[in-house]
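Q: I'm writing up a methods section and want to include an example of the input and output format. Could you take the sequence below and give the corresponding predicted structure tokens, formatted cleanly so I can copy it straight into the document?
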Amino acid sequence: MKTPADVLADIRRRLDRTWAGDVAGATTSWPHRFALGTTTKTQLEAGWQTIYQPRIRQWRDWARGRPVRLHTQQKRVYTTTQDIPTHLEIVDVGSAAAVVGDGWERRLAKARAHLTRVTTHFPAAADPALVIRTANRYEDTDFELLLTVAAWFQAHDASGYTPRQVPIPGVHSKWLNTHQPLILALTGRDSLGLLPKHPARIHFSYLDPTYQASGARRHDSASVGDSVTPAYAPTVVIISENKDTAIHFPPITGGIAVEGGGFGGKTAAAFPWLTAAPHLYYWGDIDAHGYEILNGWRDDGVPVASILMDTTTYDTYEPYGTDTDQRGQRLEPGSPKSLPHLTPDERAVYERLTDPMFRGYRRIEQERIPLHTAASVVTARTASSNGH
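A: Here is the clean output for your methods example:
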């Protein structure tokens, strides 16, 4: 037989999953009976005094004074008939909130107030439940801003605008992009009519010394979907997560350096001249995130070989490492992820960096390794694979 704490956890899970739809009237999740578990006559008699009789008293005491119904079933125990609790019934969402506590009654009151505003001002709202669920964690000013923006789109045609061009005071493009689902839910529209984001783009630098000597452009870009080919078909491509490293990479015969910039392998895969390069390298920071990005490139179908991300490189440059990330926050070990595309040497470093007992630096920035060292590694690796 479950304890009150066990069933309380069940109630909390159901409430958390269903409350918004119930408040909005889109779903009906209550009344609901929560089973307390089945017990046989043999079990009852074997543990009556030590387990079941105290548990039954616990249930009766717990249910008393709470908005619940404790359902029982008569069963024979020894020579007597006992009322054995079998189910706990919660009749409505308000009762569930009262039983769970922990601020849930305030949350429902806030949601109902939000729902009144939504249904009054946006009678065509397509998904009020989505709105009140998301807005439940908003401050009042944030909710008012959401309603103001939705009202503007309800009254105006935004066709042809980019998110940055929408003339609403106090609203920036990032806010608008992240809140579009709620605005659509409020206005009942399928689209706001805004121009789509521009296609993903890569930036790259030409490294071939002969080409550089010609005086032609050193830096280039290409957008996904454009029919663009670089000035020459590269035999070596180095993808660097750091922009400056890619721009200033030393000359490499037939080489192109691509700025990784976190765009990932899916963007690179759109450029056959990049993925078809005979020698394709990836160079990132030596930290947990760097190896996760590397694994992601390979998972996206871009067969990069890493450079300077092995155990030897870590051991050599560990004195120049750091324990803070790019925002100055302290790096914690974190939970190791399943990265099936790492080589054994790469995995050895990754597991070291995510080990809570590890006492070395958890991040070596790419910039701490001299560019001429990276160029020498690329040249040697390329020559070796060419059989030289």
